Structures are given as structure tokens and as C-alpha cells.
Amino acid sequence: MLTRLFFAGALLGATAAPGQTTSPQVELANLREDLRGLVQRVGELSLRVEQLERQNAELRDKVSADSPAYATLSQLHDAITELKRAINAGDAVTAERATAQIKRLGEATNAAMDSLARGLATRPTVPASFTDNYAKEGVSYTVQKGDTLAVIAKKTGGRSQDIINANKLTDPSRIQAGQTLFIPTPEAK
Fold it and tell me: What are the phi and psi torsion angles at 149 (to 5°)?
């Protein structure tokens, strides 16, 4: 503001014709006007400073009410580092739990496979090839629920081995209800 006043004063002085001097009364009036402008500007700035101080106090009160204290960057860094450590430790615990669960599932799978292997070991061996040594005439039979090869042979009067050969059954225990089988009749051999 002062530089503006000096600049304005310099302009006023420059506008006077060379050799002319301004009267002391004009200079005094100009100085009074400049002083009045300065006093007004200082008053405005004082009001603005008071307003800013009030806002600052309100913000300080609000911040202190929301959080007990200010955190420094160092404190934030330490908190983040500790959080990372906790997450990594949590990952280790999760990995241990997953490993234990995988181990239990593996043991259960192995037990189930052993059980299947024992069941397969007790089944009769599948013939490598089928023979044509059965009667070429016979009847059709539709497997009923609960039928086994032995039950079907007994019902129809056929022989189990002839039924296996005629129908090329690789696993006679896997016949299903609704399946149609050819039953060779023993007399027609």
C-alpha cells in the first residue's frame, strides 16, 4: 500500500509542469487522503486478523474434540509398520490353518482311495477275453432293481458265465436296473 502511495505521489509530482511546484496545501490534502486510506486499510486488516484468529480457535477446538492429540508423521509411520507386521503374522496363521486343513483333506482322500482299492481287490478278476461257448438262442431280460447276476441266472435258469460271455460284461457287479441282457438258454447249446 505504501509503495502505491509513493508511486501515486511520484505521478502527482510528475504531472506538475516543469518548474511548477505544488502548493503546500495540495500536498497536505494529498497526504491526509493517503493517511485516511492507510488507516481504513489497517482497520480492515485488523478485522481480518481477528476473524482468522477466531476461525483458527474454532478449528483447534474441533480437532481437539475429535481426536485426543495430533499425530506426527513419525507416529503414523510407526503405526503403519506395526500394522504390516500384524498382517504378515496373520498371513502366517492363515497359512498354517490352510496347511492343516489340506493335510486333513489329503488324509481323508487317501483313506477313501485305500477303501476303494480294498473293494477292488475283493472283486473277481475280469476275464481278459470272452468266449463263444454259450447257447446262441435265449431270451431277453430287463434287469430289475436289486437284481444281481446270480439272481438273474437263478430266475432265468441260465448260467452266470454264459450271461457274462453273451453280454460281454467286464464288471458283472455293475449291472443296472432297466438294462436289457441276453440270457442264453442251456438246452439250446
Answer: -60, -40
Give the chain's domain count. Answer: 3
CA angle, residues 20, 22, 23, in degrees to nearest 5: 125
Instruction: With H, G, I as helix, E, B as strand and everything else as coil, classify residue 38.
Output: helix
pLDDT single digits (tens) 128-165: 688 888 889 999 999 999 999 999 999 999 999 999 99
The domain in which residue 31 lies consists of 2-65
pTM, two decimals, is 0.35
In a domain, 13, yes or no: yes
Looking at every residue in the chain, the average pLDDT score rounds to 78
Measured CA distances, 154 to 142, 149, 158 (Å): 14, 9, 7
Same domain for 90 and 118, yes or no, is yes
- Whether residue 130 is contained in a domain is answered as no
How many other C-beta atoms are found inside a 10 Å radius of the C-beta of residue 163?
24
pLDDT tens sequence across 14-23: 444 555 577 8
Nearest to 2 by CA among 29, 41, 28: 41
